[in-house]
Task: inverse folding
């Protein structure tokens, strides 16, 4: 039992890695958004030397994805190793997600084992962290760079460190984040605040000298590249502004002005609670202030600087997300989407880890208050997500009451390793419920079957037209590894009256019943059923079937 705290982080890391891998494999639905397709296509172009390095000089494409080189660059390497397929396309987000758990383990497994285990669970098993592992989106990749850069800032300013090297690492990691997604800007106010505080105290001069000099050189080279390519050193900033103007009809100042007050006041709180982040926020609040009771020897001295660092970074990032703007030229609050919160998650999870560690060490009124708050969130939410608040709330309520319960087991008294392990087990259980539900659900896209059927129409001799649904049409080339047979043309179902069918120009109808029954797609994109599609092509002959995917030859 004495070795239990030391074993908790390793056991937690193993569990998080295995659970994340299982979720990645069991819930993968293939390409599921236009972003996935763009990044994968850029990776393929980069691999084959056809990537157009120069961005659009007029900003007409409204495509900031083209400039996120550290999203599709590593994917090009995976394509070279494993070929173009949906697993190789999404290995990079998966590895970045697992890398976050590895970084937390490296930072705190020995220093603060309970905080490390709690943070790994809160971050790694958060549903939307897992959900973003199997999409080629930049969010979890950015999250990795954000955590790594913040850790370099924290550790590099400690005594007896090689400050210059840490400053160099901090600058490089921050630049890597910029090459992944622009929302590294969430951290800028905190970084400037730390710089100002260190400058006022005349501390950590070598770290900041190297970091600022390296950052200035990197940004100068970056601006020079864009100037050479587009005559605009600030091209990327202007491209983002152009994108904001292009999407202005849906923003809070042009198309949704009436919702602005709610967006900057109460709506974010409801949003955070609704996606399960209320647990992290409540536990992080428990890390505020000095610990109640008598701390263990050196306890406050060891954990206070790190705890305050992650709390301050979480608070600053939360404020930026709550009140910040996507535009420099006009005020347009950031969209309330779960994937937009990923920069907030690492510091918030670590602050919450320190909060939970304090609760199981000291119990008392703080644990009672946190338990009651979580139960209030349960009553307020009243949805399936509320399980994330219910069981931890009951557990922490019991922990808070434990000093006054005479029959409470001695092994589960505050400060005992078994209590920390029990609370962490409750945390792991409740966080795993929602992901496990989706892991057990049947697939809704039939992506693999669709690829297998499409590749039956391959080879230099294949000619004709393939009729596909509106969801597949923009990205059918991915199914062929971006090398579509030259004789094939792809058209939407509705093109039935505009195609020629003959012996030299056959036509096929690809019907994916999973796609046409997907609730998310039928609400927005798909406006037809399998039966209606088949009725448009009465002269057809089934030539292949793989599960819910059917291929018909269409005749006159």
Result:
């Amino acid at each position: 039992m004495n070795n239990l705290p030391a074993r908790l982080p390793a056991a937690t890391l193993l569990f998080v890695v295995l659970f994340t891998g299982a979720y990645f494999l069991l819930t993968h639905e293939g390409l599921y958004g236009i972003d996935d397709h763009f990044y994968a296509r850029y990776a393929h172009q980069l691999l084959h030397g056809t990537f157009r390095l120069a961005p659009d000089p007029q900003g007409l494409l409204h495509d900031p994805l083209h400039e996120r080189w550290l999203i599709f660059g590593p994917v090009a390497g995976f394509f070279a190793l494993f070929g173009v397929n949906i697993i190789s396309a999404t290995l990079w987000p998966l590895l970045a997600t697992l890398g976050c758990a590895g970084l937390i383990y490296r930072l705190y497994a020995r220093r603060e084992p309970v905080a490390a285990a709690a943070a790994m669970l809160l971050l790694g098993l958060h549903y939307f962290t897992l959900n973003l592992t199997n999409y080629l989106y930049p969010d979890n990749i950015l999250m990795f760079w954000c955590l790594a850069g913040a850790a370099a800032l924290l550790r590099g300013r400690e005594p007896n460190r090689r400050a210059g090297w840490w400053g160099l690492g901090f600058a490089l990691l921050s630049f890597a984040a910029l090459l992944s997604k622009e929302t590294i800007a969430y951290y800028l106010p905190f970084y400037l605040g730390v710089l100002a505080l260190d400058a006022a105290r005349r501390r950590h001069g070598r770290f900041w000298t190297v970091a600022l000099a390296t950052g200035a050189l990197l940004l100068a080279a970056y601006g020079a590249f864009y100037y050479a390519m587009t005559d605009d050193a600030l091209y990327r900033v202007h491209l983002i502004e152009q994108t904001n103007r292009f999407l202005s009809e849906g923003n809070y100042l042009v198309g949704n002005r009436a919702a602005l007050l709610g967006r900057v006041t109460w709506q974010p709180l409801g949003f955070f609670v609704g996606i399960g982040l209320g647990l992290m926020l409540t536990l992080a609040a428990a890390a505020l202030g000095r610990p109640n009771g008598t701390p263990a020897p050196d306890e406050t001295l060891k954990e206070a600087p790190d705890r305050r660092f992650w709390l301050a970074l979480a608070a600053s990032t939360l404020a930026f997300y709550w009140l910040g703007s996507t535009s420099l030229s006009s005020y347009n609050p950031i969209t309330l989407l779960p994937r937009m919160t990923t920069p907030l998650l690492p510091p918030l999870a670590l602050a919450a880890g320190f909060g939970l560690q304090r609760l199981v060490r000291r119990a008392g009124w703080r644990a009672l208050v946190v338990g009651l708050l979580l139960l209030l969130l349960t009553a307020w939410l009243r949805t399936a997500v509320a399980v994330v608040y219910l069981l931890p709330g009951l557990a922490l309520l019991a922990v808070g009451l434990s000093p006054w319960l005479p029959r409470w087991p001695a092994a589960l008294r505050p400060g005992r390793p078994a209590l920390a392990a029990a609370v962490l087990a409750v945390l792991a259980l409740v966080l795993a419920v929602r992901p496990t539900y989706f892991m057990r659900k049947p697939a809704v896209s039939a992506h693999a079957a669709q690829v297998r059927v499409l590749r039956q129409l391959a080879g230099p001799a294949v000619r004709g037209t393939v009729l596909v649904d509106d969801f597949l049409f923009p990205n059918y080339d991915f199914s062929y590894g971006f090398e579509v047979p030259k004789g094939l043309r792809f058209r939407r179902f509705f093109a039935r009256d505009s195609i020629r069918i003959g012996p030299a120009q056959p036509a096929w109808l690809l019907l994916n019943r999973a796609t046409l029954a997907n609730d998310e797609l039928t609400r927005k994109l798909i406006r037809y059923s399998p039966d209606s599609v088949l009725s448009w092509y009465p002269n057809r002959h089934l030539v292949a079937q793989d599960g819910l995917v059917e291929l018909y030859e269409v005749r006159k």
Notes: The mean pLDDT is 91.
